[in-house]
Structures are given as C-alpha cells and as structure tokens.
Amino acid sequence: MRAVPRHVACVMDGNGRWARRRSLPRTAGHRAAETAVIDVIEAARAAGVEWLSLYAFSTENWSRPSDEVDYLMRLVRRVVRKHAPLLLARGVRCRFLGVSDPRIPPELAQDFDDLTTLTGENRGMTLTVAFDHGGRRDIVEAARSLIRSGTPAGEVTEAVLAAHLPFPDTPDVDLVIRTSGEQRISNFMLWQVAYAEMVFPQVLWPDFRAPHFVECLQAYRRRDRRFGGAPTQPNGEH
Ligand code: IPE
Ligand code: IPE
Ligand code: MG
Fold it and tell me: Which of 32, 54, 92, 150 could be 87's S-S partner, Cβ–Cβ 3.0 to 4.6 Å?
C-alpha cells in the first residue's frame, strides 16, 4: 500500500453548525469555509496527493432554502475567480463534477469552464470539485451512455461500466475525510469510494486546516487495507 493516499475525497461538512455556535447565519459558515478549502488544497499538494476531490454541493442540497442556495452559488463563483491564479501557479488541474442542473447560474458554469480550460494543461494534482453532484446520478448516466453505445449485455464488466462514468480517468478513492463527526457518504462518488478508507474528524469544516489534514493522512497510514484478502500485518488483531 502507498504511504500517501493517491486519491483523497473530502465531504466538507459542518458549516452551518460552525455558524450556529457563533450565533451567525448559516451563510457565515459557508463563507468561513473558503480558508479551509485553500489550506487543504495546499496541504494535499505538499503531501504528494495526486487526486483531491471536494464535495461542494450535492444534488440533494437543492432542497435547502433558496437564499442559502443563492448564497452558495455567489460564494463559489467568487472563490473560483479569486483563486484561479493560485491554482494555475501551483500546477493544479481543476475540473467540476456535476454541473448539469439548469438552476446553476450560467455565469457560474462559465467560470467553471474557464478555470477548467485555464488549468487544463497543468500536470500537478487534479482537483475535482463535485458541484451539483450525486453518486447515483453518475451511475445512472453511465448506464444510459452504455446502452446508447450498443454494448451487448454480456460484455458489460465493471471496467466497461466505469469507462462510461463522468471523468472515467478518476482513480478509486483511497481516503474519504468527512468533517463535523457525521458518519455517512451522502451520495458522494459512490462508484469510486467502494473500497475507500474513511475518517471522520470532529472538527467542523470551517476550522479544518493543514494539520488536521495531515492527521487524517497519518490515520490512513495506520490502516491495513485488505480488499477482502487476508491480513497483511503479522501478529495483527485480525
Ligand atoms: C456543508 O456544511 C456545506 C454544504 C453542504 C454546502 P453544512 O451546510 O451541511 O453544515 P451543517 O451540516 O448544517 O453543519
Ligand atoms: C453533504 O453534506 C454534501 C456536501 C458537503 C456538499 P450535507 O450536509 O448536505 O449532507 P447530509 O444532509 O448531512 O447527509
Ligand atoms: Mg451538513
């Protein structure tokens, strides 16, 4: 097993609770999340993580009050524009997973396209921002694409189906980090997390910083990934 996970996926959770603890509106928690996002991108790069995926907005998050949704759209737009030069300079290749709902403001979709194009030649870490993402929807889309391709049922294997997922070059997730103590996957990259290790730090996302990220990597290193096989650690408890 690699000492550093190749693909880390973060469920950035706890913004609302962070704000509530300060008697602030939920939107203040989202705003405070920006620093954590940049810190984690830098920490992941520094640690040698090759793929970083961040869950920013789920297909289920459309059910939130419209003023919160509107705020998130404006905030993400501002963050994307503000940090584009940094991401370019750091060699980070950026792309956006999801982004299919007509409720996404066209100017935000344009900013996503612009950042994708701007950083498309970068060969450093690949940053996938899951926005308007649902893991089940991706699998349904893959099934549709597969059927359209006319592939005979007998020829459908896991690899063939995976090739029809959005961004099929994405490797399996090695480590899921979900902040705020919640322990669920909430429809995030369902196909890719099949054998991911998971850690659930208590810290709320707006307080999450590089040292927390490094702790998660250390926890990962202590895991014995067996993939259904026999234990690899001699004298292990298992
Ligand atoms: C995560 O924080 C951010 C998004 C889902 C956009 P939450 O807004 O879910 O924060 P909590 O879970 O209410 O604390
Ligand atoms: C998952 O968090 C989605 C993102 C972090 C973008 P939620 O806070 O929306 O998930 P649930 O509702 O607790 O499952
Ligand atoms: Mg939440």
Answer: 92
Q: pLDDT tens for residues 67-93? A: 999 999 999 999 999 999 999 999 999
- Concerning whether 13 is annotated as a catalytic residue, the answer is yes
Residue 234 has pLDDT above 70, yes or no: no
Q: Which atom of ligand 1 is nearest to the CA of 19?
A: 14
User: How high is the mean pLDDT of the chain?
Assistant: 96
CATH topology of domain 11-223: Undecaprenyl pyrophosphate synthetase (3.40.1180)
Question: Residue 16: pLDDT above 80?
Answer: yes
Measure the CA–CA gap between 194 and 173, rounded to whole angstroms.
Answer: 8
pTM for this predicted structure: 0.97
- Ligand 3 centroid – CA 32 distance (Å): 14
pLDDT digits (tens, 9 = 90+) for 121-136: 999 999 999 999 999 9
Nearest residue to 180 via CA among 10, 12, 9, 8: 12
Encoded tokens for 18 = 């962070």
> Residue 109 is encoded by which pair of tokens?
């979709």
Pull the structure tokens for residue 145: 């694409």
Check if 57 has its Cβ closer than 6 Å to any atom of ligand 2: yes
Query: What distance in angstroms lies between residue 61's CA and the mean position of ligand 1's atoms?
Result: 9
